[in-house]
Design a protein that fits this description.
Blueprint: H1 39-65, E1 122-126, H2 131-142, E2 146-151, H3 155-167, E3 172-176, H4 182-196, E4 201-204, H5 220-241, E5 250-254, H6 258-261, H7 267-287, E6 293-299, H8 313-317, H9 331-342, H10 344-347, E7 354-357
Parallel strand pairs: 1-2, 1-4, 2-3, 4-5, 5-6, 6-7
Amino acid sequence: MASSRKPAKKAARGEAAPRAPKTGKARKTAAPAKAPASAAARTGEAVARRQRGLQEKARAANAAIGDSKKKDKPVQAGARRQPVPPMPAQHLDKPGRERDLRESPRFEAPDYRGSGKLEGMKAIVTGADSGIGRAVAVLFAREGADVAVFYLSEHGDAEATARAVEAEGRTCYLHPGDVKDSRFCKRAVDKAARQLGGLDILVNNAAFQQHVERLEDLGDAQLDETLGTNIGGYFHMARAALPHMGEGASIINTGSETALFGSKALLDYSATKGAIHAFTMSLAGQLLPRGIRVNAVAPGPVWTPLNPADREAADVARFGADSDMGRPAQPEEISPAYVFLASPVMSSYVNGVVLPVMGGPRG
């Protein structure tokens, strides 16, 4: 029997062809062909997988530490534990006496053993009635040097330094006066050199510091006091000492981290410390042909009368808390650097150096 369906008409030119009926199955399209992966591409994928593994391992390790990692925990890295903030909330009247501090600065360095590094040498240390200067005088004596202590007016503190030097079996002479006065420096240095029987080491350490929050409030009198003491005094003392110094002698200046980083409320002090660093490097070049070395130590925050005689009590309590170690240094942690720079057997090839002793790269 013949079919009754008529054959489909061909689509006219320009007309769309009729759609095929749906069968329930998706039409398959051919995927583009992939080029075979190169060796370099396979290596890259392997490296990426390895890096993701390292990432996950580090994240897990960091998460495990959690709250046990405290950035503000004070660091102890020495032979004995040192005091940490809060320090005593105490303000001192200038110039600041060490014996008045409720937390006595540590200068004895009981774990330091002398070995004759400065045997028979003669030293002048300014600002040695207290703080870093006292600690330096004591270690110099422990290494075999006699010491002349220059200080402003803190007689009781200076006598305590003298007793500590003499307890090390060395001689100590006291010279009160103002290093801003070039005539005092000349007269006192000449006398000290006669008393000591020569002069091998000069440590310029005397300093004046006073915080002022606004430049407009920094008066001429304070500016003169800071510049005259901190840099003028260094010039006066070095100039007076040089006629007594020969080959193998050394000058050590006390700089500061403020010379490296600045301090917004210590404009005058920071400027003088920067000048001290430049003075050190310049004088080192000038004196090198004479065999006299010149170096500097740049301490970070150190627990001495200097800051309690400057800041308000509440600020003193936080002193050193924002340093890298989370605490101020004690003078006995700074003084070995001066021994290193003074000793010809340790630093005969060290000249024009500013040695940071700041507890970390940011002080």
